[in-house]
Each structure stands twice: as C-alpha cells, then as structure tokens.
Design a protein that fits this description.
226 residues; two-stranded antiparallel ribbon; 10 helices
Length: 226
C-alpha cells in the first residue's frame, strides 16, 4: 500500500501497466509453446520442441536483442495456421494453469489497491489479444494490445501499429502525464516509463538503465521491496 499512498498524495489518477514479466513471470514464447503442446502428441511435441529450441530460439534471441519489434514481427507469424477459436480456448487454459501460478504478487496486489484508491488502470502490452484479455477479465480493467483476427480460417495478428505501439498509446490516450504512472519491467519499455511524471520499474534488482529515467521513478522488486 505504500506505493498507492505515495501516488495518491501526488495526485496520480491513471496507471498504465505492462503485462509480461511485470504482472506475471511469463513471455510470448511460453504461450505459443503451450498452444503447440496441446495440438500435438506428447512424443511428437518433444521432437518438435528440440527442433524449435535449436533452430528458432537463437534467431529469436538475436532479433530481440537487436530490435524487439522485429522479433515480434517474425515470431507472430507462428500463429498464422492456428484458428483464432483455438487460441482463445488455449489462452483461457494457459491463464488458469500457468499464469495464475506465476503472478508477481506485489504487482498483482498493487493493481487491486490502485483500483480501490480510485486510480484508473489500463493494461498495455504487445502480446496478442486472446491472452491479454484473460488478464483484463481477471483484474476487471481495460486493455490495449495487438489484435488477433480470423482470416480464411487462419489467425492474423495486426502489426500495422506495432512501431512504438506502447509509446504512441500513452501519448495519445488522453491521460495527463503529470498525473499518470507507468509500470513496467524492461529496458524495452524505457520510453513508456520515461514519458509520464511517475514510473515504477519492476525487476529483481535495480537495472542500470533506470538511472536514465528523467521522472519520479521508483523501484519495486518482485518480492515486494521498494
């Protein structure tokens, strides 16, 4: 509650919160692997997984290190042949079986505390809608993410606005930066964390890049220490 008291005293009215590795210990690859494992015979899945880890993961890591948006453009092609209905069913299962067990408890509790204090909360993510919607339904808050739609029986991820997706939203959402806090974990979210007057960096330790933030930024580790 210390953070909520702090933000209430500062007049914060809006909280923009990242999802992966901020609310839960998860990432976009984990959900895809969960979907594939549900689609395949266990033996075939293990064979496929070895291939995927050897051939694709190094490329994804390299792309992500170079440019997060490029990684996402390449990675989300994997969903093209998976029907949207199946993604939605698997997203519910993934959330119930995996995500709920991997909540980062201080942030999980903080969201409910912010709501009780009258601070509006929006989840902002470049993950795909079927999975982000599960978080939004659980916390009963609105969300902004990459839309997934069905086209000729396949799934198309809308990447048309991927470039600076989060920063553009926080600039254009109508929230006054002077009474907004951004909550995220990664250097990839530096601009989003830096744009409003207030920020919370969620991590296991204070990252070096946090020193570059030019606003009122505080650190919250995943065990709840500020």
């Amino acid at each position: 509650m210390n953070l909520v008291v702090h933000f209430t005293k500062k007049g914060v009215k809006h909280a923009i919160i990242d999802v992966d590795n901020t609310i839960s210990k998860s990432n976009v690859v984990e959900f895809y692997l969960f979907v594939r494992s549900a689609m395949m015979h266990p033996v075939l899945y293990r064979v496929w997984l070895c291939y995927f880890m050897i051939v694709h993961i190094p490329m994804y890591l390299m792309l992500d290190f170079w440019k997060r948006e490029r990684f996402q453009q390449v990675f989300y092609r994997n969903y093209a042949k998976i029907p949207i209905g199946q993604l939605e069913r698997r997203a519910y299962e993934f959330f119930e079986m995996k995500v709920k067990a991997s909540f980062i408890q201080p942030v999980h509790d903080l969201i409910f505390d912010l709501k009780r204090a009258g601070i509006s909360v929006v989840l902002l993510s470049t993950s795909i809608e079927p999975i982000v919607k599960q978080y939004a339904d659980y916390f009963q808050v609105p969300y902004v993410c990459l839309e997934a739609r069905s086209e000729n029986g396949a799934t198309q991820i809308d990447l048309s606005s991927l470039s600076d997706f989060k920063l553009n939203y926080i600039r254009e959402c109508g929230c006054d930066p002077c009474n907004t806090v951004s909550i995220a974990d990664s250097k990839h979210d530096f601009d989003v964390l830096n744009y409003p007057k207030y920020a919370v960096v969620v991590n296991d330790r204070v990252p070096k890049w946090m020193k570059g933030l030019q606003n009122d930024a505080v650190f919250l580790d995943r065990k709840g220490r500020e």
